[in-house]
């Protein structure tokens, strides 16, 4: 039986009760279908703009099976391009780097950081005349549709998804009281796990496990106040109205809150899954993003970035608090990675299909599973 036939047999009602069947977390054919139906057609994240600290910084990524580069040009602007030379499609960059120009390792075609072709040696053969402006005009790097929101770089590889502003609008409106443009990255840490990407996303949206797996971060009593958030067909989340004030202190002294944050939000923690692969956590004093990057059907890379609320909060005055915050959040993520590597084996077994979602805790997770099913069953 092919994966396509298996997918059509998955019933939404069963998913509501038991979650997705185990085979979807381990089937390579399904993984390949996801590249087109989910990652190419939607708004997928690839990294964060503040990872590109200086003009010339370049971040290579692969999403939807496509090799891309995010580049900060000499004017400080971010652009996203296919990581493909316009001559014979050689990759331009293999690892994060800083360059004044992009030079193809194959035939030394060179490109400006804004994607424009600079030169192509001996383009006319024996005639050593530099390539003309006319011949350069249609040979620049191919741009990718992208948007930056809360410093996260989103791309739409297919180019035909809904406008990003419409896609993100429900969450943008919910967070309108937070000055997103003031946030400052204090750390970015890469992880790898032997796990299907969907299990990594599902875990982030599972508030039930937090006090048991991450007792240093949360108490059982605090998560009993958890509120489910269903914002759109692509965005779900959770809210703890007093999560920040109820949990153990992360730092010796308080990091500065978001400026102008309403009093009723000064203890509120909220975290969201932005389908398919963006995980986003907002605290009154810090922000965490996790970009989940599938690298195979049972392998996933992640980049966890931690932000404070302002330049003041990122100053040397709070160095100790920044380090402690980053350590705690990365400790939590490492605990999840270790758990997920084990879960990959058991969650893909036949017996896992007899699991039972819990009404009080698993509605957000179930909603994520239903999102996946709708997109994968769509022709």
UniProtKB/TrEMBL annotation:
<protein>
    <submittedName>
        <fullName>Aromatic ring-hydroxylating dioxygenase subunit alpha</fullName>
    </submittedName>
</protein>
<dbReference type="InterPro" id="IPR036922">
    <property type="entry name" value="Rieske_2Fe-2S_sf"/>
</dbReference>
<dbReference type="Pfam" id="PF00848">
    <property type="entry name" value="Ring_hydroxyl_A"/>
</dbReference>
<keyword id="KW-0408">Iron</keyword>
<keyword id="KW-0479">Metal-binding</keyword>
<keyword id="KW-0001">2Fe-2S</keyword>
<keyword id="KW-0560">Oxidoreductase</keyword>
<dbReference type="Pfam" id="PF00355">
    <property type="entry name" value="Rieske"/>
</dbReference>
<feature type="domain" description="Rieske">
    <location>
        <begin position="45"/>
        <end position="155"/>
    </location>
</feature>
<dbReference type="InterPro" id="IPR015879">
    <property type="entry name" value="Ring_hydroxy_dOase_asu_C_dom"/>
</dbReference>
<keyword id="KW-0223">Dioxygenase</keyword>
<dbReference type="GO" id="GO:0051213">
    <property type="term" value="F:dioxygenase activity"/>
</dbReference>
<keyword id="KW-0411">Iron-sulfur</keyword>
<dbReference type="InterPro" id="IPR017941">
    <property type="entry name" value="Rieske_2Fe-2S"/>
</dbReference>
<dbReference type="InterPro" id="IPR001663">
    <property type="entry name" value="Rng_hydr_dOase-A"/>
</dbReference>
């Amino acid at each position: 039986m092919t994966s396509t036939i298996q997918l059509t047999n998955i019933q939404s009602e069963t998913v509501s009760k038991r979650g997705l069947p185990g085979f979807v977390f381990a089937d390579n054919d399904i993984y390949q279908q996801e590249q087109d139906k989910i990652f190419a057609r939607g708004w997928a994240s690839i990294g964060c703009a503040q990872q590109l600290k200086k003009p010339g910084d370049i971040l290579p990524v692969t999403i939807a099976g496509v090799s891309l580069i995010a580049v900060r040009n000499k004017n400080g602007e971010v652009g996203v391009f296919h990581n493909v030379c316009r001559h014979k499609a050689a990759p331009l960059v293999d690892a994060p780097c800083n360059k004044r120009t992009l030079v193809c390792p194959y035939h030394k075609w060179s490109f400006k950081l804004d994607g424009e072709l600079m030169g192509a040696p001996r383009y006319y053969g024996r005639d050593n005349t530099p390539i003309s402006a006319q011949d350069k005009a249609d040979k620049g790097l191919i741009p990718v549709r992208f948007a930056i929101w809360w410093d996260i770089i989103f791309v739409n590889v297919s180019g035909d998804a809904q406008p990003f502003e419409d896609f993100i609008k429900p969450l943008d409106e919910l967070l309108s009281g937070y000055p997103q443009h003031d946030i400052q990255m204090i750390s970015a840490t890469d992880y790898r796990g032997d796990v299907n990407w969907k299990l990594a996303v599902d875990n982030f949206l599972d508030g039930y496990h937090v006090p048991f797996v991450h007792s240093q971060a949360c108490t059982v009593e605090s998560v009993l106040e958890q509120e489910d958030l269903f914002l759109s067909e692509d965005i779900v989340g959770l809210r703890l109205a007093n999560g920040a004030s109820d949990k153990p202190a992360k730092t010796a002294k308080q990091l500065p809150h978001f400026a102008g944050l309403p009093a009723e939000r000064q203890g509120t923690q909220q975290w969201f899954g932005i389908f398919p692969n963006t995980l986003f956590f907002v605290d009154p004093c810090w922000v965490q993003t996790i970009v989940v990057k599938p690298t195979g059907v049972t392998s996933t890379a992640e980049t966890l970035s931690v932000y404070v609320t302002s330049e003041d909060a990122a100053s040397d005055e709070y160095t100790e608090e920044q380090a402690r915050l980053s350590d705690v959040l990365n400790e939590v993520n490492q605990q999840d990675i270790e758990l997920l590597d084990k879960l990959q084996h058991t969650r893909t077994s036949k017996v896992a299909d007899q699991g039972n979602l819990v009404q009080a805790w698993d509605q957000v997770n179930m909603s994520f599973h239903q999102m996946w099913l709708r997109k994968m069953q769509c022709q």
